[in-house]
Design goal:
164 residues, alpha+beta, Flavocytochrome B2, Chain A, domain 1, six-stranded mixed sheet, binds protoporphyrin IX containing FE
């Protein structure tokens, strides 16, 4: 007998449902890859190949609650928000777990306003973004400087050419 209970639809793409962890466990292959993150179920089959951390780590988490593995890597807020399109339903309430640091696309935005990140890995991720912006700005400044220098050189050549 199926353990799936259909609930009123809130998505046009697929009817969200309640799943037991046992039901999720059946979808643990690269061709049919489901995972639980923070009591929500995601079908990440089509995402796996694009995962910046590689496919293998995702295949290892197929069909199981991957929240802790996800948290251990201290994924960025961008990574959390990427989950949204793959949401297919909720874990049945009686199987809900408590997470020390719940992050999901629905609550993420609100929580990010009040909870400062203390994870060193996340701090490093944010620092990388700041460094990238700095390098971009430096590149623009250098290019402008180079353009001015070239123009000055060109003008000085003209003077040299026409002076008696
Ligand atoms: C399916 C949902 C997942 C999404 C949307 C996702 C997304 C991402 C993104 C965007 C990154 C780049 C770094 C960042 O922005 O945080 C990343 C890196 C990574 N992810 Fe995931 N990830 C997922 C699940 C997992 C899981 C379950 C693991 C299990 C261990 C994992 C392991 C890693 C690793 C090892 C990296 C590389 C970190 C690095 O080299 O800095 N990811 N992931």
């Amino acid at each position: 007998m199926s353990s799936i209970t259909t609930v009123p639809s809130i998505s046009k793409k697929v009817s969200p449902r309640f799943y037991t962890p046992a039901e999720v466990k059946k979808h643990d292959t690269p061709e049919d890859l489901w995972m639980i993150f923070y009591n929500k179920v995601y079908d990440v089959t089509s995402f796996a190949a694009d995962h910046p951390g590689g496919v293998e780590v995702l295949f290892d988490c197929g069909g199981v609650d991957a929240s802790e593995a996800f948290e251990d890597v201290a994924h960025s807020d961008d990574a959390v928000n990427m989950l949204a399109p793959y949401f297919i339903g909720d874990v049945v309430p009686e199987e809900h777990r408590k997470y020390a640091n719940e992050r999901n696309p629905v609550t993420q935005y609100m929580k990010s306003k009040v909870i400062p990140s203390s994870s060193p890995r996340r701090k490093r991720n944010n620092k990388k973004k700041v460094d990238k912006v700095f390098v971009e700005k430096l590149t623009v400044v250098l290019l402008v400087f180079l353009a001015v220098l070239s123009f000055a050189f060109y003008v000085s050549l003209q003077k040299f050419k026409w002076s008696p």
